[in-house]
Structure formats: C-alpha cells, structure tokens
Amino acid sequence: MANLRDIRRRIKSVKNTAQITRAMELVAAAKMKKAQNQALAGRAYADELNKVLVNLKENVDENAHPLLEKRDGNKTLTLVISADKGLCGGFNGNLLKEVNNAHTDETEYVTVGRKLRLSLMKAGNDIKADFVVVDPVPFAEARPISKYLIEQFLSGDYDCVKVAFNDFKSTMVQLPRVVQLLPIESNSLGEKQTYEGVGKGQVGETDKVTALEKEYTFEPSPEKVLDALLPQYVNFQVYQMLVESRASEHSARMVSMKSATDNANDMKDELTLQFNKLRQGAITAELLEITTAMKAME
Fold first, then answer.
1. What is the pLDDT of residue 98?
2. CATH superfamily of 42-253
3. What is the enclosing helix (H) or strand (E) of 78?
4. Which of 50, 65, 84, 260 sits 20 to 30 Å CA-CA off 183?
5. Percent of the chain scored above 70 by pLDDT?
6. Domain spanning 2-27+257-297, CATH architecture
C-alpha cells in the first residue's frame, strides 16, 4: 500500500503543477495579444515614415548627417533586449547564442531584461547601462534608451550601435536577430519596414517609386527636417524592437506553458493508470488470500 500512497501523492503534485502552468499559459496569451496589437499599431506609421525618408534622402547629402556617418573602427555598443523571467522556452537562450556569435573583443553592452544581463555579466562582459521597461511597453520608455544610444554614438566612443532582439513572426516562430541601428544605412532609410524583420532587405522598386511620386515641401530645409526626423526614426526603431521582443516573449511563454500543461496531463494519466493497476492487483491479492483462508477452514 505504500506504493499506492506514493503514486497518489505524485498524482496530486502533477495535477497542481498542471493548474499552475495552465494559469501561466492564459496570462501569457492575454499579454501576447496586447503586445501583438502594439506591434501592428505601429506598422502603418512606420510605412509612412519610411516613404518620407525615401523622398527626403533624395534632396540631401546623406553623409552630411552624423547619424549616417560610417566609421572605420570596430568598437560596438549592442543593446540586448531579453526577458526579466524564464519559463519561456528557448527565447533567452537562442538570443544569447546570436549575441555570442556577433561578439568581438571591442563589444560592450546595454541591456533591457534581467536574464541576459546576468548571463552577460557572468561571462565577464562590460555592461554600460541597464534599462527597465514595463509591460505593456509605453512609447515614452523607448526615448531614454534611444537617446542614450544616440549620445554614445555621437560622442565618438563607438563606431557602431547594434540591437539584439527576438523578431516576432508568429505565435510559434520567433527569430533572434542582431541588427545595426547606427550608423543608419542608406538602404534602411528607404526600407519599407513591416517589423516582421527589422533591418532586413531593401525597399522594393515599386515602393521607391510610390514614395518619390509624392511631392513634399520641406521647411525650413531638407537638412533641418532630416536633423529632426532621424532621431525620431531611431526612437521608433527601438520602440518597435521592444514590442516585437515582448510579443515574442509572451508567445514563447504561452507555447512553453501549454507544452508543460500537456505533459503534466499526460503524466497524470499514466500515473492514474499505474495507480489503478496496482490497486486492482492489491484487491485481487486480498481476494485470493480470503479465498485461500476459507478453503483452509473447510
């Protein structure tokens, strides 16, 4: 009977675990929906912003602005956007692999999220700054991050600024990426961003023609407009990467918790079957003992 008590205790423990993981799955699903809505809400704005930049860059010398200046050095500052908590599958681990692949001896880091900040510190990397972003991500909280990155780049301390984040493709697919933020490359100015792949590819010829067909009047001058627009462009890039990463995190956690719940239910079914077999065997043994005793008394 001791085995039966142990199995009954295990069944209770697994059932409690399944309830917890199921609750975490539902919470992650609700948060994922909000993050997805944030990501989708910014894509129309991103499209129009890029169309303006396509037209604007045709009227100015791109090398005249410091955020477009390409430098010969390799000193890199990388913003790493991870999760504050675990239990989200390979979300943090896969991103860490991409960060390590892009790492050089001249790379320093700025972090958002506790998990990879601790991992990078344990590896002996230099963390220049750490930012805390609440959930859901407010647009205002992207500004201090982008401002810090711009200031570090303009100071001349770094030749390149990159961002490591998880690109949200679907509920089941999140791609870890490391993309260049500064200097802003000329092709990314004209890039039609859907934020289903920030920094990937170039704007198509059809989109370029559509953007250039629109006539814009820049006041007081294209250079002044570019000077005001590029920091806003960088700020929006950082914000969109934050919400993409947050949507990826909640999606990964929801899938991970659903898998854990399913595994717990399967384990509970196996333990229940094992419990029933043992109980049936114990009952059969008792019946045999009673029958044997009755025959012995005849």
1. 94
2. ATP synthase, F1 complex, gamma subunit (3.40.1380.10)
3. strand 76-81
4. 84
5. 86
6. Orthogonal Bundle (1.10)
